[in-house]
């Protein structure tokens, strides 16, 4: 089975980063390139425009990134364009970032609560996650979702820990709807 474009190029960048001892440098560059791509609609439009030829697109990459990121990162971006994968820049770099985070034992957690948490509460949540996982540190994202009513929902990769009151009420409602009382079994 063919590997995804993000895996092939992301793995190659990761291996190069490890071999050259530039993991932190490439991580910062990858995050910077993603910021440029996300915040600049014109860049994405030019890179995906059918009337702009490949040579012009390679020149755009050089003008935007050369001297701002390493030659290796520019080379990756150029290679993605040469292989008609420039639309995959973000997914390749996000895959690379995930590999680096796994390598450095950094977790990404999203915590949703019905109201804003205090700094002390945020610290407690992070400490608890560090105690119950194998991660050395976390990049935390906090979201407010009033529909949760109470409790919280924590997402780490594909794991979800849901202790929200909304979910507990939903489970209870489901369980109660499955209870079937037979006529005559109820006490008068």
From TrEMBL:
| Topology class, membrane | Peripheral membrane protein
InterPro entries on file = ATP_synth_OSCP/delta_N_sf, ATPase_OSCP/dsu
Any one annotated GO CC term: proton-transporting ATP synthase complex
- Localisation per UniProt entry: Cell membrane; Membrane
State the superkingdom. Bacteria
Instruction: Please tell me whether the keyword Nucleotidyltransferase is annotated for this protein.
Output: no
A GO molecular function annotation here is: proton-transporting ATP synthase activity, rotational mechanism
Which UniProt keywords are given for this protein, alphabetically ordered? ATP synthesis, Cell membrane, CF(1), Hydrogen ion transport, Ion transport, Membrane, Transport
The keyword Transport appears for this protein: yes
Instruction: List membrane-spanning regions.
Output: none
Principal place where this protein is found? Answer: membrane
Q: What does this protein do?
A: F(1)F(0) ATP synthase produces ATP from ADP in the presence of a proton or sodium gradient. F-type ATPases consist of two structural domains, F(1) containing the extramembraneous catalytic core and F(0) containing the membrane proton channel, linked together by a central stalk and a peripheral stalk. During catalysis, ATP synthesis in the catalytic domain of F(1) is coupled via a rotary mechanism of the central stalk subunits to proton translocation.
Q: Which HAMAP family match?
A: ATP_synth_delta_bact
Regarding protein family, the annotation reads:
Belongs to the ATPase delta chain family.
Give the matching NCBIfam families: ATP_synt_delta
The protein in question is named: ATP synthase subunit delta
């Amino acid at each position: 089975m063919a590997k995804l474009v993000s895996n092939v190029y992301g793995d190659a960048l990761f291996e190069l980063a490890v071999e050259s001892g530039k993991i932190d440098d490439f991580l910062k560059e990858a995050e910077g390139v993603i910021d440029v791509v996300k915040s600049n609609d014109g860049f994405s439009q030019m890179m995906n425009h059918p009337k702009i030829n490949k040579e012009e697109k390679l020149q755009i990459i050089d003008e935007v990134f050369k001297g701002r990121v390493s030659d290796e990162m520019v080379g990756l971006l150029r290679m993605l364009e040469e292989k008609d994968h420039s639309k995959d820049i973000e997914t390749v770099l996000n895959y690379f970032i995930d590999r680096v985070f796994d390598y450095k034992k950094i977790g990404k957690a999203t915590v949703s609560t019905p109201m804003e948490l205090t700094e002390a509460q945020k610290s407690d949540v992070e400490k608890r996650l560090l105690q119950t996982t194998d991660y050395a540190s976390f990049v935390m994202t906090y979201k407010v979702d009033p529909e949760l009513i109470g409790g919280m929902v924590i997402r780490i990769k594909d794991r979800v820990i849901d202790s929200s009151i909304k979910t507990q009420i939903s489970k209870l409602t489901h369980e109660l709807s499955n209870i079937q009382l037979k006529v005559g079994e109820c006490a008068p």
